[in-house]
């Protein structure tokens, strides 16, 4: 994939800054109309609104920053070359369910880190219009072995922001790290009608975790509190055992943690709980390292 122009990050860097509220302003060339409405209402621009602004600017971004137009043949997007068997350098991060709400958050955070991104999506054309050539989007059935083999070419790490992907696929040959954002603890903490409504999702989450643990691939399972659509970056965190059953976690924070976990690869497997709380984290690599050490000590006991 072509390198991402540095001007893209200069103009949209404020879109992804996570820790300071002053960095959350959006470049006016993308959101002028929306910003006027929000400013008049004196409301803070949410990260999801920023994502929408960025996505709607997709076709313009390609023109502004010199990326090529979408490849079209007979009115449709050109399909991937099924015949190519050349093994690529494994430097990409594959995002499963990439056109979901939290999947898009993960993708955009990866783009700003200048990561090579591949994404499994339902609508390839829509994804290409949204992200241009900055994301290698693929649409297909992940349980189909030939399609999965193509999707995994060049992939080092997989991020699964929702349940269901891992329990639907076979082998993940060549993958060196899988990050699973799991809601299993939150589902276990549900009661009454909520527990009934989430019963199928809980089964999928359980299957995903079991499949990943048995895979032999180094993994990070992030057992998050109940995900909610609130602004991220302003709250602290809680890593206490059992906390994710009782507490919530902003989707923005969850996506951010998934991306930070890409560079923290465990030797075997690593599971930790996280929810919003009072603990401020300034260095996620250091914090993830400490959590890994704690998990290793518990396994030895």
Automatic annotation (TrEMBL):
Alphabetical list of PANTHER family matching this protein: OS03G0410700 PROTEIN (PTHR47869:SF2)
Signal peptide (residue range): none
Entry-linked InterPro entries: NAD(P)-bd_dom (IPR016040), NAD(P)-bd_dom_sf (IPR036291)
Organism: Carpinus fangiana
Residue stretches making up the NAD(P)-binding domain: 101-263
GO cellular component: chloroplast
Protein name (record): NAD(P)-binding domain-containing protein
């Amino acid at each position: 994939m072509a390198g991402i122009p540095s001007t893209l990050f200069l103009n949209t860097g404020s879109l992804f800054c996570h820790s300071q509220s002053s960095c959350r302003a959006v470049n006016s060339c993308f959101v002028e109309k929306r910003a006027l409405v929000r400013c008049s209402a004196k409301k803070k621009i949410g990260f999801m609104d920023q994502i929408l602004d960025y996505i709607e600017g997709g076709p313009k971004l390609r023109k502004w920053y010199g990326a090529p137009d979408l490849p079209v043949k007979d009115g449709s997007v050109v399909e991937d070359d099924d015949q190519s068997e050349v093994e690529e350098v494994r430097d990409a991060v594959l995002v499963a369910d990439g056109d979901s709400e939290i999947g898009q958050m993960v993708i955009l955070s990866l783009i700003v880190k200048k990561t090579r991104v591949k994404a499994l999506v339902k609508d390839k054309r829509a994804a290409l219009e949204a992200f241009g050539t900055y994301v290698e989007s693929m649409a297909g059935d992940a349980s189909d072995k030939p399609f999965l083999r193509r999707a995994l070419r060049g992939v080092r790490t997989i991020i699964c922001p929702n349940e269901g992907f891992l329990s639907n696929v076979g082998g993940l040959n060549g993958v060196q790290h899988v990050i699973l954002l799991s809601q299993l603890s939150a589902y276990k903490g549900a009661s009454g009608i909520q527990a009934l409504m989430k019963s199928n999702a809980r089964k999928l989450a359980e299957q995903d975790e079991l499949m990943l643990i048995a895979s032999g691939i180094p993994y990070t399972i992030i057992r998050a509190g109940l995900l909610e659509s609130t602004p991220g970056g302003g709250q602290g965190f809680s890593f206490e055992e059992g906390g994710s059953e009782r507490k919530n976690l902003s989707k923005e924070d969850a996506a951010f943690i998934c991306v930070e976990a890409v560079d923290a690869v465990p030797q075997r497997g690593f599971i930790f709980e996280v929810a919003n709380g009072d603990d401020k984290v300034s260095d996620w690599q250091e914090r993830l390292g400490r959590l890994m050490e704690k998990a290793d000590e518990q396994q030895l006991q």
